[in-house]
Structure formats: structure tokens, C-alpha cells
Amino acid sequence: MRPPILNPLFAAVDSIKGIGPKLMKPLDRLNIATLRDLIFHLPNDYRMRHHLTELDEAYVGQYVVLDLLVTSVRESAGRGPTRILAQDDLGNVMALVFFGRNGGWARRQLPANEKRRVSGRLDRYGDMLQIVHPDHISPVNEVVNAVEPIYPLADGLTAKKLHFSITEAMADVPELPEWIEPGLHAREQWPAWRDALHLVHQDRHDVARSRLAYDEIFAGQLAFALLRKSNRRQQTRPRPGDKRLTDALELPYSLTGAQQRSISEIAGDMASETPMLRLLQGDVGSGKTVVAVMAMLQAIESSGQAVLLAPTEILARQHFDGISEMLRGLPVEVEVLTGRDKGKAREAKLMGIADGSIQLIIGTHAVFQDAVIYHDLALAVIDEQHRFGVNQRLLLVKKGKAPPHMLTMTATPIPRTLTLSQFGEMDVSRLDEKPPGRQPIETLVLSENRLDELADGLARHMDGGGQAYWVCPLVNDSEQVDAVAVETRFAMLQARFGDKVGLVHGQMPAERKDAEMERFVAGETQILCATTVIEVGVNVPNATLMIIESAERYGLAQLHQLRGRVGRGSDKSRCLLLRGDNLSETGRERLALMRSSQDGFHLAEEDLRLRGAGELLGTRQSGDVGYRLATPEQVHTLIGTAHDDARLLTETDPELVSERGEAARIALYLFERDYGVRLLRGG
Ligand code: ADP
Ligand code: MG
């Protein structure tokens, strides 16, 4: 249960004075639903207002506070602005300018021959300084804050309103007990939690901000440490295997060193009484499937069942086909189970899973529905981990008589620091070596102005029977707007290539998306016009051409993922990166890196260097590891300390019952990492 001290923070945001139904929409767009969300909405900049006594000291662009004597009101003819002249103590004259209906109001606020304190941004019109629409006008004795926090806004929510609401909300914020380790707290000279919040809402204060970031990172690491610990406490059946199946498996290639290392790490984990909790990280094409197959065979040798969970229907079926082929001749019963199975056929499969005659199950979410009862689930493999959250994984744990061993796989190569921040509860194996003989994907950068030539080239590619992906530009963060862009491009391609063009984007219903993908897999369509939904996609060896529009707008990691869709067959593959005219320095560097390297881990490190980790951090399901307060740089610098501190705390106080442990529980709830607490006795 949530500690009562936090209750005021989780009150709905409309309980704050002045926030009514009209503001709910813009607040929602800013992800603000509770009072906590509101106070965690931190300024992204601060504006300094300079208190000046003489206009001579001022310059254009400066935010100033001035005490001025109003001298005259000048109304220009017609619809022009109202200009009110005022002067400083030395008689320097400037203008205060108001457009439209503000003129009348301004004349009342600024009567002639009176002094007023005015603030705003200085600019120049002709040879006179002026402020257009001052943001503050008051009697001269009223205090104007020298610093104004600038918040990210949404349509329908003014800066003034937001600032006011945050100030109101801060009044209800309780002081919380300290969860940071005292030595660290002192060394960093961090303020207390509530003070830190106050400080960052007032002024630029890096130390306070770093404390707030640390809290969030620490809560994440603590939740992971608890997950890990609770996993360690569990007992399961060791599944050492007897090599009967793994030795009999005939592969048309020899395993790479990285594959052998990963296989033996996994084999060791599975032979233990502690359930395995391991992440297998390997670039597209690094050969994760065979590693998973070896683990699954080991589970079956130890008389257990294995399940392989794929993120989509198509991927599940492709895995089923590939793995059935690989295991041909071995005495292993393999089945596929997805949402598409219905009626009698489904019943038969469920029966086989329940009586143990089906030993290896490949499927989608359908494999952990209530109706699916396993005879003896020994190992669960999750492909493309980031589509599954921690909560879903915990569901899967309950499917075994004893907790199953868990292997999660991801094709997103991420830098080590980020592995910690996203998968901190797991042990990690890395496939950092590609199978030999891979043809590099020829990567070219072209100007977007050459679309016509490109279409000609595409026509030749298709005449030869080839297939291609065409990825459309990310217009902005809105899926809807992207859909429009992709449909426009689709129409253009269709005009030229007719029904040889398919279309997928995130706004389509799942079934239509699947159907379109399948048409492409089957070769019915030759061009697949798409948004990045194809990122975690399918294997179409015949697709040897990847075209990415406005490539400079994507992060390196994402470009690399997209490029990984081609280069899967024996034919030479190409990736064409189309760039717009206004290429930034970073954009240029990014595209150059894409040309020069095909190493996902290297590109991921470079991506982190070039753009920060925002995109990489977004790869795991939201609600799990999204950071609200911590910036990528802060994650980078603080995660090591947070990780060690969290581990230490769970060693010394595994149930979080000491004074600091109790405080740490509060932090877990504050950042909604409370699945960690729920694993504790009395949690
Ligand atoms: P991932 O899932 O990591 O993207 P896959 O497991 O699908 O990669 O493997 C990609 C391709 O590489 C498959 O065609 C597979 O047969 C092949 N492959 C895997 N391991 C090796 C190896 N050691 N040597 C040669 N080819 C391999
Ligand atoms: Mg794979």
C-alpha cells in the first residue's frame, strides 16, 4: 500500500485551486494527472530579469525590470498599436506598445504622470527602445522576481497559469524522510527533497536538479535490485540437460565465439536452483535464435517445456517455421500458438501443452493467457524484450510449477550504462561478434531532391524481382501526422508502381497491418511503404533495398535497426539514406557514421555521444523505465552510484525496514516503481 504521507501528492490535479475542466486537456498532453506530476513538471529554462535604473545600460533582447514615469499616450491612427511613452529618472524616453484591445487596458494601467514598475523584453523600433506587451505592470513598490522559470507548455495553458498552479501545488507538498545514503548526501551537498523541488521551480539550481534526478534513478535501480533479490530467493528446479538433443542438433555453420560463450553462460544459469534472469543482447543478425534454441533444448532434455514469446503474430510464425526446420529429425514436438488459433485446433494445442506432449511452444501473448496451462514450464524466452514490461514478465513467472528460467533477448544494442538503467535486474550476455561471411550492407547518402532518379532505380530493382522497404519521414511526434505523410508517399508510389506497393503504419488496425506485412512476405507486394513500425519486423531475405527518407531526423540507433531489415539473404543489400537540404552538423556526422560502421554496439555508443540517450531510453515499454526528471546526461553520470547504493541497501536491509529502508519505500512509490515493494514481505 502506498505510504499515507504520499497521498496529497497523488491527488488529482484538478483538486488544485484554479484548475478546472478546461485545463485538463492541455495538462493531459503534458502527462500531468496528479499533483505529483505537476510538481515534477520542471522548468526547462530560466529567464533572468535585470533590474535597471537607467535605460542607457539596457540592450535589445534583454529582459528588464524598470521603474518608469508615464509621460504620454500616443494612439496611432486606424488599427495601429497603442504606444505609451515613459521615461527613466534621467529622462531617457522609451515606448510601451500594445496591440488590439490591450490598448484600452494599458491606458488604465499606465496613467500619465504616474510611476510604474514594468518588465518585459526590450527591443527597438526606429531609434527608440520599446517593450511590446510588458509581462508585468505594477506600482513601484511591488516585488518582481529576478528569475522567471520557463516551463514546457501545451496549447490552452498559459505560462502564467501553469506557474501559478505549480506554486499552489508546492504548498501542499509534504516533507519526506531522507532516502539517500547520508555519506553521499553530504558529499554531494544535496538539499532535502522538498527543498530541492522548491529551488528548481525558482531558479537554475544544478545541485538541486541533480538530487531530483538521482532520486528517480535510485528508485529505478532499487526496484531492479529488489526484483533481482526476490528472484535470487526463489528456488526452482535445476535443468542441467544431458546434451542428448543439443549434441544431436546439426547446424550448417559453426557457432561464433560469442554464441558459444552465451550458450554456456545460459547453460550454467539453468543448471542452478536459482531461476535464470538473463538478457541476451545482440544486434540484428548476430544469431540470437540458435542460442535460444540451445537453451530450449536443454530445458526439454531435463524433461521440461520451453516457450518462446514473440512480439507479433508474424514473428511468431517465422520463428516457428525456422525453428521447426532447424529441429527436423530431432525428437521434439514443436507447436505455434497465437491469437489466431480458434476452436478445436486451439483446444488440441492447449491439451498438448497441458499434458506435456508439446514440448516447445512458440507464440505471442496468447501463450500466457489464463487458459494456457503448462505441464512443466522450465524456460521462457522472450524475443524483443522491450515490447514486454516487467509486469508482464511477472505474469509469465506464475506459469511454472516452480518459477521458470527466463531468457530475454533484445536486438537493440545499447551502451553499458543504459543496459544498467533499463535492464538492471538481469545478468547480461552479449553477442558482440557477427557470424562470419556476412556481406556488408552498402550504405549511401543521397539528396532528397533526387526522388525521380530514385524511382527509376527502384523500377529497375523491381524488374529484377527485388523487393524494397520505403520508410517515410517522421514529421513530428504525432503518429497521426506521420500517417498522413506515409499515405501521401504511398499514393505517389502507387501512381507509378500500382498494386505492387503495400502500406503499413502505426495507425492501422493490427489485423490490416499483419495482412499487409504478409502480402510483402509472400512477395505479392514489392515495395513496402512504412513508418518505423517495421523496425522490429520480419525477415524477408528477398528485400535487399532499404530507402529511408529524411534520414537525418532519426537517431543512429534507429537508423541501424531499420537498416537491419535488409542484408538477410545471400544477395548484396543496399541502404539509401535520403537527406533534406538543411543538414545540421550532428545530422551530417550521424549519416557519415552510418556509412562507415555496421556495428550496432559502436553506433549505440556514438548515438549516446551525439544526441543523448533520449531515444534509447524510450525503447523499453513506458511505465517501466521512462525517466521524468533525469536527463540522459544525468542518467549517464549518476547511474553507477545509484546502482551500487541500491544493491548495498538491499544487502544490508533486504526487507526495507530500517529507517532509511522505510524512506526508500516511499521513493519507490513516489516514482511508481512499487512493483519492487510488492515483492517484499508485508510490501
Ligand atoms: P537475430 O535473431 O540475432 O537477428 P538470427 O538468429 O535470426 O539473428 O540469425 C540470423 C541468420 O544468421 C540466420 O540465418 C542464422 O541461420 C544465421 N546464423 C546464426 N548463427 C550463425 C553462425 N554462427 N554462422 C553463420 N550463420 C549463422
Ligand atoms: Mg531474431
From TrEMBL:
Entries under Pfam families matching the protein: DEAD (PF00270), Helicase_C (PF00271), RecG_wedge (PF17191)
Enzyme class comes to hydrolase
InterPro entries the record matches: DEAD/DEAH_box_helicase_dom, Helicase_ATP-bd, Helicase_C-like, NA-bd_OB-fold, P-loop_NTPase, RecG/Mfd, RecG_wedge
Source species? Alterisphingorhabdus coralli
Q: Name one GO molecular function term.
A: hydrolase activity
Instruction: Write down what this protein is called.
Output: ATP-dependent DNA helicase RecG
Annotated ranges, domain Helicase ATP-binding: 269-431
Name the keywords, alphabetized.
ATP-binding, DNA damage, DNA repair, DNA-binding, Helicase, Hydrolase, Nucleotide-binding
DNA repair recorded as keyword? yes
- Which parts of the sequence belong to the Helicase C-terminal domain? 419-609
Q: Which domain of life is it from?
A: Bacteria
EC assignment: 3.6.4.12
Q: Which GO terms describe its biological process?
A: DNA repair
Which PANTHER family does this UniProt record tie to the protein?
A: ATP-DEPENDENT DNA HELICASE HOMOLOG RECG, CHLOROPLASTIC
| DNA damage listed as a keyword | yes
